[in-house]
Amino acid sequence: MKIFVAGHKGMVGSALVRRFQREAGVTLLLRSRAELDLTNQAAVTAFFATEKPDVAIIGAARVGGIHANSTYPAEFIYDNLFIAANCIHGAYLAGVKRVLFLGSSCIYPKHAPQPMPESCLLTGPLEPTNEAYAIAKIAGLKLAQFYRQQYGVLYHSAMPTNLYGPGDNYHLQNSHVLPALIRKFHEAKAASRDEVVAWGTGSPRREFLQVDDLADACAFLLNLTNPPDLINVGLGTDVTIKELTEIVATTVGFTGKIVWDSTKPDGSPVKLMDVSKLTTLGWKAKVSLRDGVAQTYRSYLSEKAAGVLRG
Question: Given Cys at both, which of 62, 118, 174, 299 links 68, Cβ 3.0 to 4.6 Å?
Fold first, then answer.
C-alpha cells in the first residue's frame, strides 16, 4: 500500500512517518514543500495523477499560535484553503479511494459545550483570533464529507486537539503555547533569570495531545471500514494554562517567578474535546501530559544541540 503523507517534514507529518514506517507492506510517498507546492493546483493534480497513492493523509498546514493567527489571517485562510482543496480534488481526479484530512479543535464555536462533541460544529461563532484558520479547516472537512457523499470515495476527517512533541516549532511569538513555554523557560534558566513573563491570565483550560498519539489514532482510523465523516482525537482531559506553565517550568528546572501579563489575549476560555466516539470505537491516547512534556523537552534539547530546532 502506497501512502502519501502531505506535510511530512512538519511535527504531525514526521509523527505519521514514524508510525507508518513500522507497518509492513507500506510504502511512504513523501514530497517536501520545495518539491511540491500544495497551494499550486496544477502541480498537486499532476503529482496525484503520476503517483496514484492508495491513501493520502493531509497533515500539511500553515499553523501557529494566537499571535501568528491574529497577525497573518489572510495567509492562514488562503494557504490552508488551497492545501485542502487541491489535495482532496487532486486525489479524487486520480482515483485515490481513501483520504484522511486532519483539522483542528479550533473548528468548534468559541462557546461550544464542554467537552466539545462533533455535533457542535457550525452551531455558533468561532474564536476571532483563529477564525481564518478555522474556516479553512472547516472547508476542508466539508470537502471530504461531500466528496464521500456524492462520489462514494472514503474521504474522512480527524480533528486533533492541541498537539505537541518532537519537531515542534519553538518560535517565541508564532508558535503554540506549549513549545513557546519550553523555550522561554529553558532560556530563562540558561541565563539565570529570576522571572518569566507568561501571556494572559493563566485561567483558560486546554487539552494537549502528544503527536505520536495522533499518528497512532490516524493508523487506527485508516483501518476502519466505515469511519465517521468527522471524529475528535484528544487526550480527554485538560489543564489550565497556569497548570501547564508550572508543569513546563518544573520539567525544565526553572525555579524563578512566573509573572502573568493579563494585557495579552487568553483566547477561548475552555477547549476540551469530547472523545467518546473514538473511545467507543476502541482507541485511547497513551501518553500523559507530564510524560509528554518531559519527552518533548528532551527532543528540544537534542534538536537544539543538532542545530535543527524549528523557530
Answer: 174
Distance CA 197, CA 254 (A): 13
* Alpha-carbon span 178 to 260, nearest angstrom: 15
The answer to whether position 108 is within a domain reads yes
Q: Is the residue at 115 inside a domain?
A: yes
Which structural domain, as residue segments, surrounds residue 124?
2-169+207-237+271-288
For the stretch 132-142, pLDDT in tens is 999 999 999 99
The three cell numbers locating residue 157? 476527517
pLDDT tens, position by position, 36-50? 999 999 999 999 999
Report residue 141 CA to chain centroid gap.
Answer: 14
- pLDDT digits 0-9 by tens, 279-307: 999 999 999 999 999 999 999 999 999 99
125 domain-assigned:
yes
Residues 6+ apart with CB under 8 A from 304: none
Residue 270, beta-bridge partner list: 205
Could you tell me if residue 193 is inside a domain? no
Label residue 291 exposed, middle or buried (CB < 10 Å: 0-12, 13-18, 19+): exposed
The catalytic residues are 133
The pLDDT of residue 68: 78
Asked whether 208 and 270 are in contact (CB, 8 A), the reply is no
Which residue has cell 477547549? 271
> What does the alpha-carbon distance between residue 88 and residue 44 come to, in Å, rounded to a whole number?
10
pLDDT at 84 over 80: yes
What is the C-alpha to C-alpha distance for residues 228 and 44, in angstroms, rounded to an integer? 26
The domain total for the chain is 1
The CATH number linked to 217 is: 3.40.50.720
pLDDT for 76 beyond 80 = yes
